[in-house]
Amino acid sequence: MKVLVIAESNEAGLRPASLRAMACGKLMAAESGGDVHWLVAGHQLDRLAGEASRYAPVLLVDRPELADPLAAPWSAAIAATVAQEGIDLVLAASSSFAKDVLPAVAVKVDGAMIADVTSLKRCDQELEAEVPRFAGSVVTTLRLSCWPAVVTVRPSVFAAAEPLASPAEIQPLELQGVASDPRVTIEQHASRNASRPDVTEASVVISGGRAVESSEDFERLVGGLADALGGATGSSRALVDSGIAPNDMQVGQTGKQVAPHWYIALGISGAVQHLAGMKSSRKIIAINTDRNAPIFDVADYGLTADVYQAVPELIESLKKN
Ligand code: FAD
C-alpha cells in the first residue's frame, strides 16, 4: 500500500497533529509492506521539507498557487500527486484545513473518504476504521472497499511519529492542473493571540467553564494561568455560548479535540460533551467548588475550591518560582 500523509504547518514548522497522522501512516505502510511519504505542498518550503524529511521521505510540491490553504489548488495538487504516484491511501490529521480540502480530494480521485477515525487497519482488500459518535458513547466500525481511500485521523489517539536515524529523500514533483480559483481569495489572516499556542497542539491546556463570569475574568484567570505555564486557553461551551470565550477555544464534542500532557479545568462540571474533547489528556487537574462534580471522576488531581480564590494564588506562586 502506498500511503501519502499531508503535512500541515504553522509558523513554528510541522504541526504536531501531522506528526501524529504520520505515525498512523507508518503503521499502515508497515502492516501492508508498503511505503509512506509526506506531501509537503505550499510555497517556499525548504525549511519545512527539511524538517519533514527527518520523519519520512518527502514529495515536495512548491508552487505560488499553494501559498494559502485554499481548497481548490490544494485539492488539485493532492489529487494530481495521488494519480501520478499511484497512491492508495491519503491521510491527514482531522483539522479545519482537512475538512475543507480532503472531501474535494476524494471526489477528484474518484475515491471514498472516512473522517475523524480513531483506529485504522487493513483487512484483506478493505480498510476498517473506527469512528466515535455521540460524544464517544458509540463507536461505529466502517469498512471501506474503494481505492484510493482518503482518511482523516483524530490526532489525539496517536503518539507522534519518531524521527528516522538520518533524513530521508526529498523528491520535488512537477504537477499538471494545479491552478488557483480566482473566485476564492484570502483577504487577511488575523491572529487572536499569537503569544499562546493553539489549543489542539499545546502540551498544557487551561480551560474555563461557567464559573468564569466575564471575558475580563477569563483573561485574568484562564489566560493568566496559561501564560504562567506556557499553555493554551480552552473553554467549555457554556462560556462560548455566553460570549465570554471565543468559539475557536471550545473543547468538546462540537468543539476541538485535545490531548495535552496537562489539562486544567477551571470551574467546568464535566458534562459528557465536554469530556468527549479532552478525556484523552494524559493528566487532568480540576478545580471546582462542587466536590461531586463529574469532572472529578476523570481528574487525576482535584481541588475543591473557588477558582476566583485558588487561581490567582496559583498564578502568584508560579510567578515566584
Ligand atoms: P456547568 O455545567 O454549568 O458547570 C459549571 C461548574 O462550575 C459547576 O460544576 C460548578 O460547581 C462550578 N463552579 C461554579 N462556580 C465556581 C467557582 N467560583 N469556582 C469553582 N467552580 C465553580 N459542552 C462543551 O464544553 N463542549 C462541547 O463541545 C459541547 N457540545 C455539546 C453538544 C451538544 C449536542 C449538547 C447538547 C451539549 C454540548 N455541550 C458541550 C454542553 C454541555 O452539555 C454542558 O452544558 C457544558 O459543557 C457545561 O459547561 P460548564 O461545565 O462550563 O458549565
Any overview of this molecule?
With 321 residues, the protein is an alpha/beta fold. The protein has helices at 16-32, 46-52, 71-85, 96-108, 215-229, 237-241, 272-278, 295-298, 307-320, and strands at residues 2-6, 9-10, 13-14, 35-42, 58-62, 89-93, 112-117, 119-123, 126-133, 138-144, 149-153, 170-172, 204-208, 232-235, 262-266, 283-288, 301-304. It has a 7-stranded parallel sheet, with helices on both faces. The longest helix has 17 residues, at 16-32. The mean pLDDT is 94. The site of flavin-adenine dinucleotide has 26 residues, from helix 6, helix 7, strand 16 and helix 9.
Features:
321 residues, alpha/beta, 7-stranded parallel sheet, 5-stranded parallel sheet, 9 helices, 30% helix, globular, binds flavin-adenine dinucleotide
* Strand and helix order: EEEHEHEHEHEEEEEEEHEHEHEHEH
Low-confidence stretches: none
Q: Give the percentage of residues in beta strands.
A: 25-35%
By DSSP, the count of extended strands is 17
The strand line-up of the biggest sheet is 7-11-6-1-4-5-12
Largest sheet: 7 strands, parallel
| Average pLDDT rating | 94
Distance between the termini: 52 Å
- Per the principal axes of the C-alpha atoms, what is the gross shape? globular
Q: Determine the structural class based on helices, strands and strand pairing.
A: alpha/beta
Give the bound compounds.
flavin-adenine dinucleotide
| Tally of helical runs | 9
| Computed CA radius of gyration, to the nearest angstrom | 21 Å
> Share of helix among residues?
25-40%
